[in-house]
Amino acid sequence: NGQPGCEESLDAFKAITGGLLAFGNRMACSHMRATELPIAERLLRDNTNHTPEQEECQWVGYQCKSYINFQEGLCSDCGNDGKKCKLIEYLPEFWLKPDNLVDVQQNYPQNLYMLTSGTPPYCVFHYMIELKMDDTVKYEGKIEFKLNGTQTVTFKRKFYAYPNTTTYNFLYTSQQHLGQITEIDIQYETTLIGDLVKASQILNPFTFLNEIKKEDINISNISVIFMSNIDKSVRDGYSSHLVPNPSKKSEGGLTRIDAFFETTDCLKRHCYKDVGCFQSGAFIRDMGKYVPHARPIINAMKDNKFRVVNNEFMICPVNPEHADVEFIMFTPEAVNNSIKFTYNPSNQSLLGSSFSPDRKTLFLVHGFIDGYKGCDDYGSCHWMSRIKDYFVRYNYNVVAIDWHKVGVSANYMYSAYNVRVVGAMVANFIRRIKAVYNYPLSKVEVMGHSLGGQMVGFVGKQFPGPEKIGLIMSLDPAGPGYDKVSIEPTDADFVVAVHTSTGFFKSVNVNSLFEVNPLESVQFSGVTGTERSVGHLDFWVNGGNGQPGCEKTTASFFHDMLFTGLMGAGNRVACSHMRATELPSAEGIAKAEHTRCQSVGYECNSYLDFQMGKCGDCGVDGGRCKLLEYMPSEWLLDDNRAKTMDKYPTNLYFLTDATAPYCVFHYQIVLDMAKLKYDGTLSVTLRGRKTIHFTINKPLAFQGRDRFTYLYTDVNHLGRITSATINFRKTALGTFIKGTVVLNPFTSVLGIMKPDIDIKAVNVNFMSNIDPEYCTKNIFIGTIADQFGPNDRYI
């Protein structure tokens, strides 16, 4: 029971945090795992899907008195006749051999145990490690193993002091084949209980001096038994027997890997070949404002026992060799057959790929607690996969960068700092392509989300000029941790940022101000994105936060929290932040459907002014509006680039729908009229390809001007507007004020008979296309000859 990847359904905390639906799914997860193993067997037998070493991973179950004994490594022997272990087969071959069949029929039931991983094909390599001591272990402790074979792995196990015991067994599993173990390094340290026992013996006056000087443990030999193959010759071939080598003994036990930097080590300058030098001290000091009390607490924990805790909270430059960053290349010739590279690929590996120097290349980077995941069995694809498909379809080389080992951390600041290191690794990969193919940087485009949206800036900083990266697209770049050093316009020839979750409070639509739910105005995800303008062009989608369809604190939020748990609530909180990742692939949908709706951002003094319809003009030269393009064409025109470079940053605004492809048609409605005397509202009907009705509830009498503007959006194209009907209706306040005017004996008859509203013209400007000729064909300019009378009038 309790299969890997299936949280225990009886765990009260997870039952609460997972919600009722998640509770049911988790409860069935282990039950359904049995149905997945037969298909996984096919993956194991398919020689085209893995290396020869992986073919030797088999599901071998071992007879044992109990599962606990199996976990302790006490059951690793198949016996002299091989009858104590059995191969799990859904398509039987081994079982059908006469000797094996007779054994099973004569000795049943047989209870056999094995372990699996949490993902297909589920098979893991089993190793039993047997330590033989010259003497019993006196003190409880922890032992750290470093196994060196074709792979090197490090792991820890608890070590108990059992009387009269000189043999200790440990079961270790790995998803990688370690090959034959040729060397083992061991480090042993006592636990707190062990330290207390040892101290009591030292202080005991009856303890002999030679007993005090004895080593805590004294290992005579170590055996490593390979368990994951039914063939005895294969098992023996990968098993090892090792004895101590005094000349190899290192001072202080194991050499520490990068994960165990002490506090002082973190602050040092770390230099790595082909990547550069990094020092986190200044960043740590700047981050003190986010966690002001954490640093002195961590600095106080200098004892070796706290080194793992230190690692979680220290901000250390990651070693590129241990970061496990994958560069996954896709091309039109290899859409589904990706090639994986390290950050420093060889000439031969690059030349052997389907990379074409004739194409542009997109580098795609994920953010915090994310990674490249591809598509699942049901056709649901990760955002990176959708964007990859879009760009490959238009003849791009695409390199998806998976840095989840660094990006998925309990300490956000650790990941936030190390975008510098990973960014330098990406830059090194680009240099390798440039060197091998004489590839111009102008054909390189880099797109990243969240922390990846900041990382792309650090990639660009590696090429200070005169030749720079062609384009950087930053999707809702992260805010926390980037107050001083951040992505900026100088990082590439052209830098564009798309903001979807900035600020703590959700932007409110002023046209429905009186319908706002105060609870819904709070947007916790706002702290994820930066509030700064960081590019040549900064697009603030729906004001930069509170994306449509992303509820936050209303009843629906608590409903989702009940049925999907904290993870579901977390997804809601991240909804606006993740919307930035959906817009690029939505652009691909719009292109495929040949829609005429374009996401055109307009310059405006503020988002409030944009919502009020004040900014619907592209200007005489078209420089006051810009098309949001993830696959650029309009931007690259010389005139447009020059206009952008003359003045930046440029802040642009537009609205979207709640569902893909998100684009909505924008219309600016301009009413030219005399100053209003009475408070009232307008009901507007526009007739074109479609007839629409809407009400302007905002009090008009307080505008104090002869021109009133309004922004209207619709998911449908209205076509050219041919006529408009406007109804003005006084509010209760307006009616009261007019009544006082009528009853005033000094008011003239002409004053009483004057119309309540005097509209001279109605202009409807189409905003959702960058082509001025197309926009001109889709506007309406009407001159109103009639005037309103004393009562409600229609035009």
From TrEMBL:
It is found in: Secreted. Coiled coil: none annotated. GO terms for cellular component: extracellular space. Gene3D superfamilies: alpha/beta hydrolase. Residues 3-86, 309-631 form the Lipase domain. GO terms for biological process: lipid catabolic process. One of its GO terms (molecular function) is lipase activity. Pfam families: Lipase. Keywords: Secreted. Its main location: secreted. InterPro entries: AB_hydrolase_fold (IPR029058), Lipase (IPR013818), TAG_lipase (IPR000734). Belongs to the AB hydrolase superfamily. Lipase family. This is Lipase domain-containing protein.
